[in-house]
Request: fold
Amino acid sequence: MNKLLAILTLLFPLSTLAAPAAAPAPAKKAEAKAEVKAEDPQQIAEKYLAALADPKKAQGKDYLLGGVSLDAKAAAVTSPKIVSKQEPRSEEGQLGDLQSAVDALDKAGLQLLGEGAALGGAGDPAKEVNVDHARKMAEKTKQLRQELITKYPVFADVIRANKMIYWHPKNPARMILQKADKTGAYKVEYVAFTVESKDSVKDKPRQWPLRVVRIKTDATDSGWKVLPASSWDPE
Reply:
């Protein structure tokens, strides 16, 4: 018996026989917050233009900031192409300061319309701003709009502070700002392209601006999106 045990010990050392199997390494936890996939803004612009030219590529309209409106679903052009690109621009700052400046401008404009007037779906729908109101508000708030443009030039371009569309109830930049935290940092990136296209095969080519933007805060990231046009201002 002792001889057999000695032979087994030589073949299979006790340290090997006694050692428990190693526990499997714990699986690595998934990242708590997935990063938005970064894409080149020109690629986004080209996908959007492809959607305007071909209904089979309509998913390219999903890149519109704020989502696809009924007008956007119907929008179509012929043979669109990018003919020029401006230098990319960016801006960083504090959300609280930016919101205060936008709120001051909004308040000044809404005071011209009386009690209950609303922007961004707040308040009485019957008193929501329309294009005639916007024309009046744009005229009477020149100084405050210029202050916003001077202090926050890139965001002012994104929210269209120099146009009547600034006051549009569904201005997507305002809606993003309303949903953002009141504190923390923000970053806006902006690339403008010039596009040439035809409204129909028989029409002469026309040129128009296409803007691709990205709005980031400490908590959110829009990803690169196309800034939509509006019937209030087609460009």
Residues 77 and 199 are 5 Å apart (CA to CA). The longest strand covers residues 185-198. The mean pLDDT is 83. The first helix runs from residue 2 to 11.
